[in-house]
């Protein structure tokens, strides 16, 4: 195993260097660890030109790729490949950036990184290149998050949504909404500043039109952001039911391969089994659980306990009923009553292909056959419907829970402002609610943010981005 080079600990504190230094230069591999045909080492900061001169003998012409030999301190070759230089501010980070593109082996990558460290750079923290792009005004916070979302996209739809956010569509729509709120706020504050003047203009057609436009923008942005969050985070679906109802067979049918062991022996599944599938672009985290029953088997008891924990956290529970040997009405009602309160449950009557199989007594239930595939399309439609997912067209943006929270708070503040305005309350109350709405929208793009939030966001990035 190749030893990864780490910078020395601080001589006083004994800690690894973490803080973003003023005017320092950072380095990291921009390609995944391991072996590959190409490996890229990225360097950003004021020392990039000096490092280029020391490693390849010159500073490359900006934005022009050229062959170069990468030299160690004594002049012996490390590798040979392509060097690219981007002069500040016309680079991703807004700083001088040097990229050394060589052969993708860990020994070569470590040698190039070690050489940059010898020349004054330090190892980049996770997401620090993108963080510098944000700090230098090259991207806003929503665009920065879209970089990570694009890398982690699990479907073509999610990748397209991330690209739309990265290109600024989400940010532009949010800013236009904030501007509309700002326009309304100026009207209200004018009434505050000139109390002796007639403030009847607040009831005029211009304000009414602005209010209708604001409401329409909230609805449109909220819908697109919600679809984007589903594309990014997906839906947690737990498959539950009595032993031998066909839960694992249903998981295999939805996944399209044998993800779970299937036997006729009750209690085969004793632990939680997780699979990630896609339903028309919607990520679905399917969790197969142990059969729910009373048992003296200590291992199975633990499996049932874990099953109840997963059910309580689920976005949707598929409660599988054996249609070939269905329980009576009272028995089924008792089984469903034993589930954690508040969960959304969809009955799935399985084994409908068997002779004498019963028809679901609940009109909302889905009849399927995991063996033949009958009813699975209807089940997939119900899963999408429960999530509120629509097949992504051109309108979804990559969005996160914090974006939806900010939009919700902005909309609530706007609603309170309009209620105060309609009730004839003090204009100061109206203006304050509009200010809070604008502030909440500013959290999305990073116009208003905290260092703690930035730290959490960029810490989730991979090193080298």
Topology:
Elements lengths: L25 E4 L6 E9 L3 H9 L9 E6 L5 E10 L10 E8 L1 H13 L3 E2 L4 H8 L5 H12 L3 H11 L2 H25 L11 H29 L1 E7 L5 H9 L17 E7 L2 E7 L9 H16 L2 E7 L6 H9 L7 E6 L15 E2 L8 H12 L13 H22 L4 H19 L5 H9 L6
Parallel strand pairs: 1-6, 7-9, 7-10, 10-11, 11-12
Antiparallel strand pairs: 1-2, 2-5, 3-4, 4-5, 8-9
Helix pairs in contact: 4-5, 6-7, 6-13, 7-12, 12-13
Overview of the molecule:
It is a single chain. The protein is flat. A hairpin with a 5-residue loop joins β3 (66-71) and β4 (77-86). The strands form two sheets. A six-stranded mixed β-sheet has the order 3-4-5-2-1-6, covered by helices on one side. Residues 1-22 have low confidence and may be disordered. The protein has helices spanning 48-56, 106-118, 128-135, 141-152, 156-166, 169-193, 205-233, 247-255, 298-313, 329-337, 376-387, 401-422, 427-445, 451-459, and strands spanning 26-29, 36-44, 66-71, 77-86, 97-104, 122-123, 235-241, 273-279, 282-288, 316-322, 345-350, 366-367. The chain is α/β, with parallel strands linked by helices and 465 residues long. The chain is built from 14 helices and twelve strands. α6 runs antiparallel to α13 and α7 (205-233) packs antiparallel against α12.
Descriptive labels:
single chain, 6-stranded mixed β-sheet, 14 helices, 16% strand, flat
Name the shape in a single word: flat
Structural class: alpha/beta
Number of strands: 12
Mean pLDDT: 83
Unreliable parts:
1-22
Distance between the termini: 25 Å
Biggest pleated sheet: 6 strands, mixed
| Helicity range | 40-55%
Largest beta sheet: what is the strand line-up? 3-4-5-2-1-6
Order of helices and strands: EEHEEEHEHHHHHEHEEHEHEEHHHH
User: Roughly what fraction of the amino acids lie in strands?
Assistant: 15-25%
Radius of gyration: 29 Å
Summed up, the helix count is 14
